[in-house]
Structures are given as C-alpha cells and as structure tokens.
Amino acid sequence: MNTTTPTLEEIQNFKGKYPKQLWYLFLVEMWERFTFYGMRALLALYISHLVLSADYKPLAPAELEAKKTEFLEKNKEVLDKSHPRYYIETSQQKVKDDAESKSNKQYGLIQAFIYAMAFVGGLFADKIFGFRKSVFWGGILMAIGTFIMAVPGAFPFYLGISILIVGNGFFKPNISTMVGSLYRKDDSRRDAGFSLFYSGINIGALLSGLTIAYIGTSVSWSLGFALAGVCMICGLILFVFTQKSLGPIGLPPEPEKLQEKKFGISKNLLVYIGSLLFIPFFFVLVYFPFDVDLTFMLGEIVKADGTTAPNLVQFSDVFMITIAVLILLYLIKTLFDVTKEEFGKMAVAIILILFSVLFWSFFEQGGGSLNFFANGNVDNKGFNMTQVNNSVNALWVVLIAPIIGMFWIFLSKKKAEPNTVVKFGLGFVFLGLGFLVFFASKFFATPTGLTPLWMFVGAYLVITLGELCLSPIGLSMITKLTPGRLHGVMMGTWFLASAYGQYGAGLIGSALAKVDTSIENPTNVDKLVQYTNGYASIGYVAVGAGIVLLLISPLLKKLMADAKVA
User: Fold this and answer.
1) Is the pLDDT of residue 54 over 60?
2) Where is the chain membrane-spanning (predicted)?
C-alpha cells in the first residue's frame, strides 16, 4: 500500500478500467451493505414476530371479547370498531394477514426514514463535515445500532433501528459521492465504475442473504443482528487503513470552519450532538405508531352504511408528506440558484429522481410483501425462502453487473450507448415484466397455493435487469448532471427519493397483505390470488412508466445539453 498521498489529478488520470481507490471503496461498501441488507432481510419478518409475540399476541376468544368490549367502551366516542390496536378476528389466517399488513407498513416506514436521513447526511457533508468524517461517523452509529437490535424485545429493537437510521444517513450518500469524485466529468468509464461499485453493494447483500437471513430466521434473531454489527466494524477498519489513498477526496470543504464556535461549542462537535438528537426523534416515529398508534383526528369519514367515524391520521404519515413538500420547495429554490447552463441538467435530474420514487415503490416489495409471498406461496423445495428471497436478487446482480458494465463500455466505443433517460425507461420495462412473471406464476400453482421456485427465481432475473439499468446509472447521473457544490445534497436527494419509494412500498405491501374481508375463512390460495393480482397491477404500471420515459427521452436529452450523460 502506498504511503504517499496522491493528488486529485493523479487519481483521475488512472490507467485501465478502474482506479485502485474504487476497489477500496468497493470493499468498504460491501461490508456496510452486508450490515444493511442483513437488517433488511430480517426487518419485516422480525416485526411480524413481535406482533405475534408475547407483547402483541392475539388474545384467546374469552379474553378477546372482554378486551374488545372494554376497549370499545372506553374509546367509543373517539374510535371506530375497526381500530387496528386489537385483533377482532378469531381466524388464525386473518390474524396472520393483519400481522403481515402491519409489518409491511412498518417496514416501509423504517426504510423510508433510513433513506430520508441520507438527505440530511448529504447536507452535513457538503457544508461542514466532509465525506470522510461523515462515512466514519455513520459507520460507528450503524454498528452500535445493530448491536442494540440484537437485544431481544421491541424497545431495544426500535432504539437500535433509530440509531441505524441516523448512521446510514451519514454513511450511504457520502461514500457514493466519493466514487463519483474518482472520475472527471467527461470520463466515459464513470458508468462502468458505478456498475462495479454496485456489484460490491450486492456482494454484501448476497453474503448477508445467505448468512444473516438464515441465522436470523433459523437460529436466532439476536445472533443475526449481532453478526451484522461485526461486519460493519470490519468495513470501518478497512476504511481507516485505506482512506489516505483518496488524497483530497472527501476532506472537509473548509476545515478551519470546523473549529468555529457557536454557543461556545465547535461546529465539529455540534454536528455530532445534532446527529444524536435525531435518534429520539426517529424512535418516536418508528416505535409509537406500532405500539400505541400515535394518531390524531382529521375530520370524519363516511362509512358504507352512511354512518360517520373519526378520520384517524397517523403522525408519521403527516411527517412524510410535510417533508416531501419542503424538499420539493428546496429543489425549486435550487433551480433558481444555478446558472443557465446548469438549469437544464438539474431539471432532468429532478424529473428522473421523481420517476425513481415509483420505481423503488415497486422494487422494494422484495424486502416486504415478497418476503411473505416467498415464505407462504412458493414451493421451497427444501430451501429457506427468506434466504432465497434476500440473496437471489443480489446473486443475479453479482453475475450480471460486470457484463452490463462491459456492455455499456462497448456501446460507448461504438458511439451507440443509450442515454440515461432511455436506460431509466428500460429499467421500468424490465421491472414491470418481472412482476408480470410473479403474476403468471399463479397459473402454475399447486392446489395448496404454492408457485414454482424456478418462476420466482426467474422473475428476479428480469427485475435485476431493470435494476441494473437504473440504479447504478442513477448514482452516476447525479454526479454528472449536478454542479460539484451540490453533489452531496443531490446525492442525498436521490436517496430521499428512495425513501419515498420505501414508504410507498410499505403502503403497497400493506394493502397486498389484506385478503378480501368478505372471505370468512381465507386460505393460502386466496392469499396467492391477492398477492399475484397486486403484482400484475404493479407490472402494468411499471411498463407504462417505462414507455413514457422512452417517448420523452429526446426532449430530456436536449435539456441535458453537453453533460455527456450516456
């Protein structure tokens, strides 16, 4: 390992396909993603476990009726009988469906906050902290969070996940930004570099899917989360020993300002303190909606029988909508602060970011509803389906990403590489076709509602092609279309779009988990129909969105001007 610190010019004038620094960041990200995807693999299933555990289990029939009567009498002026705090169905399938519905929504909410915090982390890194300090601090918090999650029970789980939310916000957008800094703006190898980096993400996801997903569901939830924390420590150690090779990349923008004091405290210390204050905030948002239904009344709703009931709005939903409005206003303001040459590129970046919200709302069914679909409606052939569901996508990425990267380089040399908008459009089309394969699998199901494993794996192959057309190219797009001074915040915005995609995924997954209430005793076949019909709708919408992007790509290409966004 070199002991000298390279200059930015020396780094960017690398020979061959990839700079050596990319391999270091590749490995650091691989370990961090091992931690993240290990948590993701267990998240919805563990929440469902908590719902059905001693703290939240359905009551026996006699206890159920007494508790139901007591609860409704106490809250008759405020709550309608459909309030979700207590299970009022005696059917075990309905109890299971309710747990899946709750878990899907909670999964989406937590994932949304994880990605939303990336916007804040990008701001801190851009303005004060620098990317390197942000990555290191975020990694420390992620490790602490996963170790706390390993403690059994709802309270430590939600405390740990709140710490992990903050840590991921500092880590994720900033390491991706440093990858972009390894290349000059006009370097055609940039997309290939991000594709390689993306394969590192998925090697981590693959390893965690094969290990943490299995250990967590078959051995011990606690051991699964603890293993994720150990791997985060490995990534941090690697980053510490290789960061010198990054030269000036990722250093604080104005180091002297870190020591400036406000309220007698340096800005450097204020960032640490401020980030810790987010932890109780997120804890309230992720724990209380689950445990005590933190809601408030917003008018009334008219039910089918003509009667009225309070319209109960969950605080976390209002929070997400409010933040969305504020971010849109911020992006509009940003458009007025850029030059004429930068305006068109920024506009295209924002349009594609908005489309990505829809993409991730569909794609992230993989961590939510598809986890339950895999365990309940796929013929497992003896495999652990949590393991399969959380590793097969990553396996396809590892196998295909290098080929896709070389394919883009080949087309670039032939001056035939499609532009970013076309790649986004293709991503949507493949995503939609993959979900249509899930839909088609019901026509090959057994009488007990089990679909073929080969179709499940095949659907993920098609979805992965869509993912590789959009996600790594999206990271590259942000660094190419946005001014350098806005890289961190716009990378954060890209992940914020993922946050709203996760939030949408939770809402969609929650709806998919609910079998028609008119069915008194729903079976596994009813569940299969419910899920696959929903996947058909997702498929049609995704393909439609892809076609729209392909049609408007010439217009957006003009706005991108000289950005050379292939």
Assistant:
1) no
2) 107-125, 157-175, 196-215, 221-241, 269-290, 312-331, 343-363, 394-412, 424-441, 453-473, 494-515, 535-556
Q: How far apart are CA 117 and CA 315, in angstroms?
A: 18
Residue keyed to tokens 């008194």:
520
Q: Is 300 helix (H, G, I), strand (E, B) or coil?
A: strand
Whole-angstrom CA distances from 157 to 161, 163, 314, 371 are 6, 10, 21, 20
- pTM, entire model: 0.74
- What is the domain class of 24-75+83-294+304-560 according to CATH? mainly alpha
End-to-end CA distance of the chain: 34
Q: Where are the domains of the chain?
A: 24-75+83-294+304-560
CA distances from residue 125 to 26, 139, 176, 489 in whole angstroms, order as listed: 20, 14, 12, 8
Q: Is residue 108 within 8 Å of residue 502, measured between CB atoms? A: yes
Chain centroid offset of residue 391 CA? 16
Q: What pLDDT digit, counting tens, does each position of 190-199 carry? A: 777 777 787 7
Q: Provide CB contacts within 8 A for 13, sequence distance 6+.
A: none
Task: Please write the tens of the pLDDT for every residue from 217-257.
Answer: 788 888 888 888 898 898 889 888 888 887 777 777 676 67
Task: Give tens-digit pLDDT for 106-135.
Answer: 777 888 888 778 777 777 777 777 778 888
Integer Cα distance of 75 and 117 in angstroms: 36
Q: How big is the chain, counted in residues? A: 566
